[in-house]
Amino acid sequence: MSSSSPSATYDVVVIGAGPGGYVCAFRAAQLGLKVALIDKRAALGGTCLNVGCIPSKALLASSEHYVFAQKHASEHGIKIDGVSIDIPAMLKKKDGIVAKLTGGVAALAKARKVTVITGEASFENASTLKVGDQSLTAKNIVIATGSAPVELPFMKFDGKTVISSTEALTLTEVPKKLVVVGGGAIGLELGSVWARLGSEVTIVEFLPKIAAANDDDIVRNFTRILQKQGLKIECGAKVTGFSKGVLTAERDGKVLEFPADKVLVAVGRRPYADNLNLAAAGVELTDKKRIKVDAHLKTTAPGVWAIGDVIDGPMLAHKAEEDGVAVAEWIAGKHGHVNWDLMPAIIYTDPEVASVGLGEDAAKAKGIAINVGKFNFAANARALANDAGDGYVKIIADAKTDKILGAQILGRNAGELISEIVTHMEYGGSAEDLARTVHAHPTMSEAVKEAAMAVSKSAIHAI
Description:
By secondary structure, this protein is of the alpha/beta class. It folds into 3 domains: 7-149 and 270-340, 3-Layer(bba) Sandwich (FAD/NAD(P)-binding domain), CATH 3.50.50; 162-267, 3-Layer(bba) Sandwich (FAD/NAD(P)-binding domain); 351-454, Enolase-like, domain 1, CATH 3.30.390. The protein has 14 helices and 22 strands. Helix 3 runs antiparallel to helix 4 (87-111).
């Protein structure tokens, strides 16, 4: 815990030092406010930096290198004999990245004169918090406590066999058989990591398809690619239990059995506001147990705000960051802005899946007249040189105005490529605007340009 006095007063106190919380605190400090940042972890960065987004991407990168060395290096004339895995070294690399980033956040907090307090906060009233033996009073309190993995009531986490994403990041040996319950981003990413390293991985998904927020054609091709990589995918299967090393599920009245050394439950995340004593502050929840906020992220309690995973909207780190900046600016009397309709979502497998805005299926379901442009990476020179010919870019535009309504990308670096489409959408740009934007050659981003051209059937490198 910090060395601040047992009682202190601030302009802003932020509860939770994840991407939303620390960004909110830093922006508020930039705007001249006196700020305190509370987190129960000594290492700042929240779930994302410590046990989520960042360590999982480190393992994804390491496992991709292993697959390249094992299976693809020889195609490039690179001969590597005796390729093997050193899991402890891999975990050390991951932990080093996490330590560097969390240390960087701590250094930024110090430089911005943000008071950091380690401990668990609870409300005494709408303007007072208790953290251990400290009492903090603030004109504004921001709740940014994030989310926690959803636990299945009939198959609770034991941290050893039935595990959450947290334990899946620290396995010291490759499980022979890993069953992943849930075919969303977390399950597919961590399933891919361990499949690449030699585990027999089965994804069991309740819904009719994995990556369910994406268009059917994207998911169909994505599923085929993952299966080619060795993942077994079982959709439309309702998990019923796990006993004696066998996970059971039900589909069409039939019982399915999946032997497993480890079961990773990745069925989603829930808002985490445990032990905050919200009632004492007068903070109300929605029917979905998220904190109720208005259009400016104010809760039902005066001077109390909420951002990120604890409120409605996608549980994404960048969404929390945008919330945090906007709230800090609103508190400081500035004009904060968040476009919640333009939050890109990414699955960091190989290939990646990235999406923003309205999908083709959703647009058709709403009866919106659209034009769709597609361009395959198989026709992109840089993609072929990078062994990244799988997948394509798809852009959805209004048939009357040509305004870009959404986009989905299946391909290597899709998470990077989606950003320019988001940028064009932010100012209401058209497919033609994107098509007439100069793209360097040779780059994979040219596929984005060609897809935009294909909206008007003008693609140069496709029929």
